[in-house]
Inverse folding.
C-alpha cells in the first residue's frame, strides 16, 4: 500500500515590506537630519563655532561639508542593501550616529568635531538610503508613506536650528548633541524589534499542498 509522505514545510517567499517596517530606519534618518542642522541658528553665530573659535569657512567645512560627504558615501549602501537587509544596515547606521553625536558633544577642537560630523553623516546617509529603498519596495500606500516621510524630513531640518538654539542658549551646545541619545536608543530598539518580526515572518513554515499517489 502506498503511503503518502507528510508534507514538508517550505519557507515563505520574500514578501514586500509593510509600511511599518520603514519606521525604524526612517526614524534614524530623521534624527540624523535634525542633527545636521541643530548646530546652526537662523540669526547670529552658532554657539559651537564661538566656543571652538572656528572661522566661518572652517565651520562650513566641518559642520556641513564633512556631514554631507559622509552621507554621500553611505547612501548607495542603503539604497543597494537596505530593502533586502534593512536591519543589518540600519543598526550600524545608528551606531555611527551614536559615535558622531558623542564626538561632537565632547569635542574641544575642530578636528574631533570633523570626525564626529563625518560619522553622523555616514549614519544618516545609510539610514536615509535604507528608508528610500524600503519605500520603493512597498506594494500599497507607497505615495502616502513617501509623502509623510518627506514632510517629516523637511520638518526635522527646519526644527534643528530652532530647538538647537534654544538648548544651546540654556544649557550649552554639548547638550544639543546629547539630547539625540535617547531618541537613537528608541530607534535602535524599534529597528531591532522590526528586524526580529521580519525574520520570524520570513522563516514561518508553510505546508505544501496535498499530495496524491
Amino acid at each position: 500500500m502506498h503511503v503518502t509522505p507528510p508534507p514538508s514545510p517550505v519557507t515563505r517567499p520574500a514578501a514586500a515590506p509593510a509600511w511599518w517596517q520603514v519606521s525604524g530606519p526612517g526614524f534614524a534618518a530623521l534624527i540624523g537630519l535634525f542633527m545636521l542642522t541643530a548646530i546652526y541658528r537662523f540669526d547670529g553665530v552658532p554657539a559651537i563655532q564661538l566656543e571652538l573659535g572656528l572661522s566661518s569657512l572652517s565651520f562650513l567645512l566641518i559642520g556641513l561639508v564633512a556631514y554631507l560627504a559622509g552621507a554621500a558615501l553611505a547612501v548607495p549602501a542603503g539604497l543597494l542593501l537596505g530593502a533586502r537587509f534593512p536591519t543589518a544596515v540600519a543598526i550600524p547606521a545608528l551606531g555611527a550616529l551614536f559615535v558622531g553625536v558623542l564626538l561632537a558633544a565632547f569635542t574641544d577642537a575642530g578636528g574631533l568635531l570633523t570626525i564626529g560630523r563625518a560619522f553622523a553623516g555616514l549614519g544618516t546617509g545609510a539610514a536615509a538610503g535604507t528608508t528610500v529603498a524600503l519605500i520603493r519596495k512597498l506594494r500599497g500606500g507607497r505615495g502616502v508613506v513617501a509623502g509623510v516621510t518627506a514632510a517629516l524630513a523637511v520638518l526635522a531640518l527646519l526644527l534643528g536650528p530652532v530647538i538647537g538654539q534654544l538648548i544651546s542658549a540654556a544649557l550649552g551646545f554639548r547638550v544639543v548633541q546629547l539630547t539625540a541619545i535617547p531618541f537613537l536608543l528608541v530607534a535602535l530598539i524599534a529597528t531591532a524589534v522590526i528586524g526580529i518580526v521580519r525574520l520570524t515572518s520570513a522563516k514561518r513554515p508553510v505546508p505544501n499542498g496535498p499530495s496524491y499517489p
Observations:
- The mean pLDDT is 86.
